[in-house]
Amino acid sequence: MKWDDSFSVGVQEIDSQHKKLVEMLGSLISEMKKGQGRIVIGKTIEEMMNYAKVHFATEEKYMTLYNYPNSTSHKKEHEKFIESAKNFYENYMKGNLTAVELMNFLRNWLLEHILDSDKNLGKFVCEVSLCKQ
């Protein structure tokens, strides 16, 4: 999977971090095609956890800075992602996680959260801060 401008939320800092998620997903898919998906699951989950810490703090900074009206529900989505990442790690440690399950989770997060919730956040930030769309 590669970055597509349709994923852009209009806020450069957030888009840069989203590109990292797209890269993670693309790397996982590439390794799966080589038959190496199982080998990179742990690394991908670790990257997911690091992504969550940094990225969610960035988004929440914008929510606070611009008094985003949907911040409560958006933060709940972040909490759900973190909980899912922990569950993926636990399942990985037990040997109960496939690369396909992880790929589907990341792809769904990209399509559902970024293209909906984050787009709404980006639109709001750009309206109040006059950033370039």
Describe the secondary-structure layout.
Layout lengths: L11 H22 L3 H29 L5 H24 L4 H31 L4
What does this 3D model show about the protein?
This protein has 133 residues and is mainly α. It has one domain: Four Helix Bundle (Hemerythrin (Met), subunit A) (Up-down Bundle), CATH 1.20.120.50. The chain has helices spanning 12-33, 37-65, 71-94, 99-129. Helix 2 runs parallel beside helix 4 (99-129). The chain is globular.
Specify the helix fraction band: over 70%
So, the CATH homologous superfamily? Hemerythrin-like
Q: Categorize the overall geometry.
A: globular
Q: Strand tally, please? A: 0
Largest sheet: none
Mean pLDDT: 90
Instruction: Supply the number of structural domains.
Output: 1
Provide the β-strand percentage band.
Answer: under 5%
Order of helices and strands: HHHH
Distance between the termini: 23 Å
Oligomer: single chain
What integer value in Å does the Rg equal? 15 Å
Low-confidence spans: pLDDT under 50, at least 5 residues? none
Summary of the model, kept short:
This protein is an all-alpha fold and 133 residues long. Helix content is 80%, strand content 0%.
Quickly list its features.
single chain, about 130 residues, mainly alpha, Four Helix Bundle (Hemerythrin (Met), subunit A), about 80% helix, globular
